[in-house]
Design goal:
Layout: E1 2-3, H1 6-18, E2 27-32, E3 42-47, E4 52-58, H2 63-68, E5 73-75, E6 79-90, E7 99-103, E8 110-114, E9 126-129, E10 138-139, E11 156-158, H3 161-174, E12 179-185, H4 191-197
Parallel strand pairs: 2-12, 10-11
Antiparallel strand pairs: 1-4, 2-3, 3-4, 4-11, 5-8, 6-7, 6-12, 8-9
Length: about 200
């Protein structure tokens, strides 16, 4: 969904900055809904001074990662991540799902390992500083999968490839080299965005 209404964009910018985000030309964000595992029940988006783009997606790993990761699936905690991603390729050469995406690269990021495998962040879970090139990316899917499944083992993942491609194209044309990300839990102040995006 592409929104150009000036009042909605202004309200989104205010929300972005109130939650600790530093406004740039391209601003990426996610709204995480803690209810339900393995579903496309989060909203991911991008906002600029003149455009807001929203899509259903996930900010959490799918069930395969939750159940099978040897340490515990990576969860990105809510917060603002300054210049954590650059444009690059998600997926190895030759993989059917390889596409241009926002990749972590040589920038470290703190994640929480879901050591008790309950699909959420708990106080007793393990917080770690992952290595460079760990692969916590923002990417999309192939087709229209009903559930998150293997599409996320810790990445932020858009369900709509067309929407994601539009965001990537705008990021390329912005000539911005690094991209920040604001991850917010679903709460009353951002429900207006969540409802538009889901």
């Amino acid at each position: 969904m592409i929104i150009t209404d000036a009042d909605t964009i202004a309200k989104t910018k205010e929300l972005y900055e109130l939650n600790g985000g530093e406004w740039e030309h391209v601003n990426l964000f996610g709204i995480g809904n803690d209810e339900g595992d393995n579903n496309w029940n989060d909203v991911l988006g991008m906002v600029t001074d003149d455009c807001l783009i929203l899509s259903p997606g996930t900010t959490k790993p799918g069930t395969p990662a939750t159940n099978n990761h040897r340490v515990g699936a990576d969860h990105l905690p809510p917060g603002f991540y300054y210049h954590i991603w650059a444009l690059g390729w998600h997926g190895a050469k030759g993989k059917y799902y390889r596409h241009k995406a926002f990749v972590q690269g040589p920038r470290k990021i703190d994640t929480v390992r879901d050591t008790n495998r309950n699909g959420q962040i708990d106080p007793d879970d393990l917080m770690i500083n992952d290595a460079e090139w760990w692969g916590i990316n923002i990417h999309t899917v192939v087709g229209n999968p009903d559930h998150v499944g293997n599409w996320s083992w810790g990445c932020q993942c858009f369900r709509s490839k067309n929407t994601f491609d539009e965001i990537v194209n705008r990021a390329v044309s912005s000539e911005q080299s690094l991209f920040s990300y604001l991850l917010m839990p679903l709460k009353s102040e951002n429900k207006f965005l969540y409802k538009m995006g889901i």
